[in-house]
Write a structure and sequence with these properties.
Largest sheet: 2 strands, antiparallel
Shape: elongated
Helix content: 55-70%
Strand content: 5-15%
Strand order of the largest sheet: 1-2
Structural class: mainly alpha
Length: about 210
């Protein structure tokens, strides 16, 4: 005897409805998860963009204040520590180390290391400019000033790399003066710097 299975039309309809509802619910869940993932990624991207923009502003302030302190130290040393130049150094020193602390907080490790060396060398320069006791004996103001410039280049390279502006160093070559591709007028001479930065001779124009 052949047995034929049959289902009540209501059962078939109900099963279809439940299956459709299940797929619909699953679709809602998947769609919600995708929306959350996109929102999370958008938030992370926005935070990174904000941090990058904030660092640009902070690094701009750091380099500006560092240069102002360097210039003030050079002027004070040349003026033999007159009252106005001493006051300028003290003010520039205070301004610089306020932003220095922020860079040490928000910068990535290469920037932290480079800016720390820059800051410590500037602090030594400031002490020598004001006749205070530093870490070098005897004082060597000219030497320290050159080492500050070298540290600035290292700091710039580290900041550029962190901001995604490239990893190639933008440090100028040794003894760079900007006139290597210029035909100088007759009678104009170009100084030949020595390896330590001192002038040892003159090169006639070509």
């Amino acid at each position: 005897m052949e047995v034929v299975a049959s289902f009540h039309p209501f059962i078939v309809t109900a099963a279809s409805d439940w299956t459709g509802a299940a797929f619909g619910f699953a679709g809602i869940i998947v769609g919600g998860l995708i929306t959350l993932a996109i929102a999370w990624q958008t938030r992370i991207a926005a935070e990174r963009s904000w941090m990058r923009d904030s660092r640009r502003q902070i690094y701009d302030r750091f380099l500006t204040k560092a240069q102002q302190l360097h210039v003030a130290c050079e002027a004070c040393y040349a003026a033999e520590r007159d009252a106005a130049s001493v006051k300028a150094v003290q003010g520039a020193h205070s301004d610089f180390f306020q932003v220095y602390a922020v860079v040490q907080t928000v910068g990535q490790h290469p920037v932290v290391e480079a800016s720390r060396k820059h800051g410590y060398r500037l602090d030594e320069l400031k002490k020598e400019a004001l006749g205070e006791e530093g870490v070098l004996h005897p004082p060597a103001f000219g030497f320290v000033s050159k080492r500050v410039r070298a540290a600035r280049h290292d700091t710039v390279d580290a900041m550029r790399a962190e901001l995604g502006l490239g990893t190639k160093s933008v440090r100028p070559p040794p003894n760079y003066h900007g006139f290597e591709d210029v035909d100088l007028p007759d009678g104009i001479l170009l100084k030949e710097p020595s390896p330590d930065g001192g002038d040892v001779g003159m090169t006639a124009s070509r």
